[in-house]
Amino acid sequence: MRQDYASLDGGKTAAVRSMKPIRTFLLLLLCLIFSTQVAYAAENGADAAIGVVVGYLASVLFFDVMPGEGNMPFIVAWLIVGAVFLTFRFGFINIRMMGHAIQILRGKYHSSEARGEVSPFQALSTALSATVGLGNIAGVAIAVSIGGPGATFWMIVAGFFGMTTKFTEVTLAQMYREFRPDGHILGGAMEYLSKGLKEKGIPRTGKVLAVLFALLTIGGSLGAGNLFQVSQAMGAVQNEVTIFKEYPLAFGLIMATAVGIVIIGGIRRIAHAAEAIVPTMVLIYLSACLWILFVHAAEVPAAIATIVTEAFAPTAVAGGMIGVLVQGFKRAAFSSEAGIGSAAIAHSTAAVKYPVRQGFVALYEPFIDTIVICTMTALVIVITGVYNAPEYASLVAETKGAALTAAAFGTVISWFPIILSVSVVLFAYSTMISWSYYGERSWTYIFGERYSMVFRVIFLAFVVLASVTSAGIILDFSDLLILSMAFPNFIALYLLHGKVADALKEYLAKLRSGEFDRERDSLARGPR
Questions:
Q1: Per-residue confidence (pLDDT) for residue 85, from 0 to 100
Q2: Is the pLDDT of residue 92 over 90?
Q3: Whether the Cβ atoms of residue 316 and residue 140 lie closer than 8 Å to each other
Q4: In the chain, where are the structural domains located?
């Protein structure tokens, strides 16, 4: 039954009035922080300014929860435990419903009662445009160079369990999404935190966590969705276009201009640009991966054996097995965003009758992004041996993952680093415009629509800042911001997973009884 917006108007107006002082305070605080950091950067350098923020965040999120030897950051443990719990709680739904998800994507269960702005496939494509990017190219190379080949194994494990996490958060996003009077949809972790926890009798806690998530998403969009993308893209391009080594600021200004042209136009222009860029680049990249693996086909079994062996008995890796595991899970979270809650914003707009249907579709996001594409990249890195080759030690030391991947491809296809550089820029570009939307929606959730342009300007300023900041400090900054989003998001997943379980049980009962087939047949016959 549709809610009457007129009846809710008074309550919403009162809620907006009560939030106005908080929004004003947060806006002033963020502006103060931003201006302070700019002034600090001008006096001490951009690295020093970002380093201060990194230090504060790391002390909170990366404190060690592992007794004895080894180091297990709290936030990584939070992701691991949550993903494993949900996978067992839902009976390995990430395996059982993959086939059904394909049928949904093919439109077999489309219903005339489904409401939304885009199709399930379009929502998946939009989310993938944000996740399939430099996390698959640069992030994997960084994971292998720091954690050794064994990090690949734990990335795959994280992707496997992350599929269930993605199912849960997307289902909740569908359940708690809000249909606006103008026809647009507002959904994501902000909504299921505020509304879901209100149902649990803790509305204030839900609102606080929703605002916290929105703030962290804003930070994540500026870090992982902006600074990291520009830094890694520039690292790959500088090897081919040397002028950017002397004038890195020029690269930042060019990227800021290109991004600004799209994001100023809003979500429609963002979606159109992403749709045009991503498929071609993914095809080129995967084709190159397959060609290299074909050329080195005889070495693939040995590479797989090395990955598995090094996962449990790593050599020359700080922290031993735990150190490798942490690197794998960190890079998997950065790549697939499972447990982060960002992609739920895109999936909430899908037109489905039952929320769990889009949850099933979302299973393919970590599968494609992490288990398929990241694994192929890792195999190329391991087989070519660039991760421990002395001639590429400087790239490893400076955490220039995209440049390291380009070097790996260059050992087999001499001209491919040029193509990869173009791919890297376009991958970074598509990720940036998608994440700018996530950040803007979160900004709007807190401050309102009329301040959305403020965020766009800040986002473009960070594009320029990234070109004059070292890759190492940016990697740390990006990790902290995007991983921190998992803290409020997983609180909602823990508290609301029972509602997802009930919806799943009801859906599976209808599926087994043949009710969905009867619905489809009735729709095909039409009214009599």
A1: 93
A2: yes
A3: no
A4: 20-519
Q: What is the largest CA-CA distance in the chain?
A: 76
Superfamily of the domain at 20-519: Amino acid/polyamine transporter I (1.20.1740.10)
**Number of neighbours of residue 221 by Cβ within 10 angstroms:** 30
SS3 (DSSP) at 60: helix
Residue 179 DSSP symbol: E
**One-letter amino acid for residue 188 of the chain:** G
| 351-388: pLDDT as tens digits | 888 899 999 999 988 898 888 888 888 899 888 888 77
Give the residue-averaged pLDDT of 278-305. Answer: 85
pTM for the predicted model, two decimal places: 0.80
CA distance 358 to 462: 33
> Would the CA dihedral through 407, 408, 414, 419 be positive or negative?
negative
**For 217-260, what is each residue's pLDDT tens digit?**
888 888 778 887 888 788 778 777 778 887 888 888 888 888 88
20: Cβ contacts below 8 Å, ≥ 6 apart: none
Calculate the alpha carbon distances from 18 to 22, 24, 29, 71, 218 in Å.
Answer: 8, 11, 18, 43, 22
Q: Which amino acid is at 234?
A: M
